[in-house]
Amino acid sequence: MQSLMMDAPLQIKTMLWRAEHLYGHKEVIARTDDGFDTFTLAELGRRARRLSNVLTDLGVRRGDRVGTLAWNTAEHLVSYYAVPCMGAVLHTINTRLSDEQIAYIIAHAEDTVLLVSKDQLPLLERLRDRLANVRAIIQLNGVVPTEGTLPVPVHSYADLMAAAPEAYEYPDLDENTAASMCYTSGTTGDPKGVVYSHRSTVLHALGLCTTGTIGVSEAERYMLVTPLSHVNSWGMPFACVLQGATIVLPGDHPVDTDYLAIIDHAKPTVLVGAVTVGMLVRRALEQYPGKYDISSLHTLWLGGQAPPIGEMKWWKQHHDIHVTQAWGMTEASPVLTFCGLTTANQHLDDEARFEIFGSQGQPLPLVELKLVDDDEREVPWDGTTPGEVLVRAPWVIRDYYDDPRSAASFMDGWFRTGDIATMTSDGYLTIVDRAKDLIKSGGEWISSVALENALIGHPKIVEASVISAPDPKWIERPVAFIVVAEEVSVDELKAHLKERFPSFWVPDRFEVIDELPKTSVGKFDKKLLRSEFL
Ligand code: ADP
User: Where residue 86 sits, what CATH number does that domain have?
Assistant: First the structure.
């Protein structure tokens, strides 16, 4: 028997509708080049419709991809609604990727129009011959240069918006229509495309509004430092609009003292950012004691990596600020677990609570999760037996976009996360290792395999193995162990790698050893390297 309930599609425009009708007076406070652009959620809706008209005039149709190369600005936030609500697909491009990767994903996604902050124009000029599908570029800020070397017209966002009408009737869309795209950075080889739907976006946003998670609420003011250019800024631009929460955006190129000045000015209650952002802000506070008022903050939601417990304690002790974490990934919209205390844990003393806050927490409502061993057998939730985490949820991918590598990431309808974890009997997950051969430095991925291949390609190197070493500033840094055929200087090796990779990929340490330890099957034994040398 079928139900008689409405089949009302889950759509992003419904979240915007709620903000406009219930919370039209609530604010977005966005840092600009010369101050702050403070506007209401009602205005966000008006700007979104204007931008939809602009894009329609430039020929963007349903299903077309609109790329963004931009910071956390008002213009970028507007595109989060303008593009999906008109039925097109917002492709946020991670500006931290290499030129080669960005060229690949613009071509692979077949972006038709690019919304670009002015500092990204030189990048596009370098890629000018690889923008085959791009018909137009909209420069988001600053004066558009009259002379340029780009093969397509560059328009001024401000001029186009000023001339665009405010009315736009958003269509009703099937909830499985693609809403946005993001490419993974954590992979060897080309990035892999993830396509989010209206349905997954709405459900993920609702997940973030439930208690036991960050619990997005109208009463709070969220400063979104997590990039709008990567995994939808952890879904917060949607959850905040849905709930009418105040949004604070740090703008172009923020540095540590900018974060403090923004907190002082916009009075956020919750800061959402990568673990390294929390550490950056802490150091700036220590450097300028008493200069900035950060008393509005009560919570830091830090993620992308596990926040060190020492950092959590520092924030609690010095500012009575609670540090919380979630675990997730690009393929999962991204949030899968969130760390809070259940009633059974409320009685615990501070030390025991910090132990729990050091874990990645419990799965969000609607997220199913299991751990499997190397033979793909489920392991028990006993807090000690590790296994690869497999997940299933309405906001997890079922396939990568047009990618032959997809199959390896799935098992019987479950997504293989590549993270190794233990799980307690009450469902608290702790990531203990990574099956993927990657290093996460300052929240950004470095492929150890790609570095190893490049090093082995150097004529003076016989063998190379790159592992992750703990680092007080970046949490992890790559260290290269090499066996050499003849003497080679560190500068020479660094120059060799800099030609091929972004500079933050280049290891700070190169250790020359006689022989690399190997496992029984002849692979470099990275565990042994780690335990012997680090
Ligand atoms: P993001 O850039 O948003 O972190 P990615 O997809 O690039 O997303 O990275 C996801 C990976 O980051 C996870 O698979 C995991 O290895 C790591 N990660 C994310 N959050 C945490 C966390 N809280 N603790 C430990 N590792 C984490």
Answer: 3.40.50.12780
| pLDDT tens, position by position, 124-153 | 999 999 999 999 999 999 899 887 779 999
Cα of 443 to ligand 1 centre, how many Å?
Answer: 8
Phi/psi of residue 254, each to 5°? -70, 140
The residue range of the domain holding 49 is: 12-254
Q: Residue 127 and residue 326: Cα distance in Å, rounded?
A: 36
Does residue 351 sit within a domain?
no
Given 203, 228, 254, which residue is the final one in a domain?
Answer: 254
Q: What is the mean pLDDT of residues 173-178?
A: 98
In a domain, 68, yes or no: yes
Ligand 1 centre distance from Cα of residue 326 (Å): 9
Ligand 1 pocket, residues with Cβ under 6 angstroms: 184-186, 230-231, 303-306, 325, 327-330, 334, 360, 417, 419, 431, 434, 440, 445
Where helices occur in 92-230 by DSSP H, the ranges are 99-109, 121-126, 157-163, 198-209
Q: Domain end: 208, 233, 254, which one?
A: 254
97: pLDDT confidence band, cut at 50, 70 and 90? confident
Rounded alpha-carbon distances, angstroms, from residue 374 to 339, 382, 387, 420, 422 = 27, 18, 8, 11, 14
Q: Are the CB atoms for 233 and 335 separated by under 8 Å?
A: no
Nearest CA to ligand 1 atom 8: 329
This prediction has a pTM of 0.91
Eight-state DSSP code of residue 427: -
Residue nearest ligand 1's atom 10 by CA: 329
User: How many domains would you assign to the chain?
Assistant: 2
User: How far, in Å, from the CA of 514 to the mean position of ligand 1?
Assistant: 34
30 is a domain residue? yes
Whether the CB-CB separation of 435 and 387 falls below 8 Å is answered with no
Q: What is the pLDDT of residues 8-29, one digit of tens each?
A: 999 999 999 999 999 999 999 9
Show which residues are catalytic. Answer: 184, 331, 440, 445
- Cα of 358 from ligand 1 centre, angstroms: 14
Assigned domain for 448 exists: yes
Exposed / middle / buried, residue 4 (Cβ in 10 Å: 0-12, 13-18, 19+): exposed
Which atom of ligand 1 is the closest one to the Cα of 436?
16
Do 457 and 473 form a contact (C-beta atoms < 8 A)?
Answer: no
Q: How many CA atoms lie within 13 A of 380 on its CB side?
A: 4
Contact between 68 and 102 under an 8 Å Cβ cutoff? The reply is: no
Atom of ligand 1 nearest to the CA of 226: 3
Q: How far is the CA of 329 from the centre of ligand 1 (A)?
A: 5
Please identify, by atom number, the ligand 1 atom nearest to the C-alpha of residue 418: 14
Higher per-residue confidence, 449 vs 382: 382
| Closest C-alpha residue for ligand 1 atom 16 | 419
> Which atom in ligand 1 lies closest to the alpha carbon of residue 330?
6
- CATH number of the domain bearing residue 446: 3.30.300.30
